[in-house]
Every structure is written in structure tokens, then in C-alpha cells.
């Protein structure tokens, strides 16, 4: 016979044992209850809208920031903001320099990987990073000498 203790006196092992016995005794009901719970908790996600531009969460469309965004996108002929990724490289020590050959090679490798990741073309043939794809051109001019 299963002896149930008051919940306040039960440890995690006791609670886990009771849950395990219930699941083992009624597997079909447990699965059905799990599925119904998932459906009930997911019902609110039916009309969810995922926003690709996080700035829209901070300012309404009719604000000055919304107007500036629309003008900027129109100027570059874009529908959405381009993907961006920024990395700032610094020297390891206070008196060090990143203008050493080995450091520049490492930075160039990281830059190449990031450029390849965000430089993919979408269905319209435009790169995802447009118009910022050439943002690191000055670095490439410096790194070409190494």
C-alpha cells in the first residue's frame, strides 16, 4: 500500500517516486495529459508575430525614430535592416599592439568567417549585410601587407 506523507515533510526523492509510480501506472493518461497541456499552453501562440527588428519594441512606428528608420531604409532601397555583426579587437596587454603580423592574421581569419556568414545572398540577390558589407575595407587595406 502506498503511504503518502504530508508534502511539507516529503523530500525530492519521495515526490519523484510518487510521480514515477503514477506515470508507470497510467502511461496513456500521462501522455494524453501532457499533449493536452502543451496544446492548452501553446494556444496563445497562434497569433504571435515575430519581429525581426528589435528597435520596433522600443519606439512606436509614428515616432521620430520610426520616421528616421523609414527614411534610412528608403534611401538604401531596403525592406528590413541589414544583419550586422561587430567585433572589437584589443591587445592582450596594456602595452601590446594588435598591429603585429600574427594578431592581424587572426583578426583577418575572424573577419573572413563573419563576412562569409552575413554575406550570403537572399532571394532577391542582395547580400544580407548590404549596404554595410564593405565596412572593414580599411582593415583589409592594412592586412594585405601582411
TrEMBL record:
GO cellular component terms, A-Z: cytoplasmic vesicle membrane; plasma membrane
Keywords: Membrane, Transmembrane, Transmembrane helix
InterPro entries membership: Patched_domain-protein (IPR051697)
Keyword Transmembrane on entry: yes
Transmembrane portions of the chain: 28-48
Lineage: superkingdom: Eukaryota
GO biological-process terms attached to the record: endocytosis; molting cycle, collagen and cuticulin-based cuticle
Keyword Transmembrane helix: yes
Listed name of the protein: SSD domain-containing protein
Phylogenetic classification of the source organism: Eukaryota, Metazoa, Ecdysozoa, Nematoda, Chromadorea
Amino acid at each position: 500500500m502506498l503511504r503518502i506523507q504530508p508534502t511539507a515533510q516529503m523530500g525530492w526523492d519521495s515526490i519523484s517516486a510518487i510521480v514515477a509510480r503514477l506515470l508507470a501506472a497510467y502511461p496513456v493518461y500521462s501522455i494524453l495529459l501532457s499533449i493536452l497541456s502543451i496544446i492548452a499552453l501553446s494556444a496563445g501562440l497562434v497569433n504571435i508575430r515575430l519581429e525581426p527588428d528589435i528597435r520596433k519594441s522600443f519606439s512606436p512606428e509614428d515616432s521620430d525614430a520610426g520616421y528616421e528608420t523609414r527614411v534610412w531604409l528608403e534611401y538604401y532601397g531596403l525592406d528590413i535592416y541589414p544583419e550586422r555583426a561587430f567585433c572589437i579587437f584589443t591587445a592582450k596587454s596594456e602595452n601590446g599592439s594588435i598591429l603585429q603580423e600574427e594578431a592581424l592574421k587572426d583578426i583577418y581569419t575572424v573577419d573572413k568567417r563573419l563576412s562569409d556568414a552575413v554575406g550570403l545572398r537572399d532571394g532577391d540577390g542582395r547580400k544580407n549585410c548590404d549596404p554595410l558589407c564593405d565596412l572593414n575595407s580599411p582593415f583589409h587595406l592594412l592586412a594585405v601587407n601582411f
